[in-house]
Write a structure and sequence with these properties.
four-stranded mixed β-sheet, alpha/beta
Length: about 170
């Protein structure tokens, strides 16, 4: 679900004709559940580019109603993403919680000290995670749309900032 919502977020940005100052890269990781090799592989394959990454955002909690973002990074960057998140109040996605990251983005985030965010949803993913009930039928079109909108706003605004996240003046 997180992959679908993230892919849809990028599609929305493109459909609206928005062109941020910086590239938004969507990565669909594999092998988290079996040793985290996808996240480590990305870090290793892109080691020379990591200094150019301004933020990493992971959506790996299923697709329920959007409930905010976790954030790990410097305080000035936290203030910036909190301000951006205020745009998402109508979706209930405006809280910025104490920590963000995830198994797939943490290898790169830690290697290059890149601010990290995790997309937070309301719902208990682990009640159905890896069970026969873990199907696309549990996701409503509205949930996909709301999560995609929240991810699109956060990713686009951060990518379009006139400064690099974490270097706020």
């Amino acid at each position: 679900g997180g992959c679908v919502a993230t892919w849809e977020a990028l599609r929305l940005i493109q459909k609206l004709g928005l062109k941020p100052r910086r590239t938004i890269r969507v990565v669909l990781f594999t092998n988290e559940e079996n040793g985290g090799r996808g996240g480590a592989g990305y870090r290793d394959a892109h080691q020379a580019e990591l200094a150019d990454h301004i933020m990493l955002l992971e959506s790996d909690g299923g697709v329920f109603n959007p409930a905010g973002f976790g954030f790990t990074g410097p305080d000035p960057a936290r203030r910036t993403v909190t301000s951006i998140a205020s745009l998402l109040k109508a979706l209930g996605a405006d809280p910025v919680l104490a920590s963000g990251g995830g198994a797939d983005i943490e290898p790169s985030g830690r290697a290059a000290n890149i601010p990290m965010m995790s997309h937070v949803v309301s719902g208990d993913y682990f009640l159905i995670h890896h069970t026969p009930a873990d199907t696309i039928a549990r996701i409503t079109p509205k949930q996909i749309a709301d999560n995609a909108a929240a991810i699109a706003v956060m990713a686009y605004v951060v990518a379009d900032l006139p400064w690099r996240l974490g270097t706020e003046r």
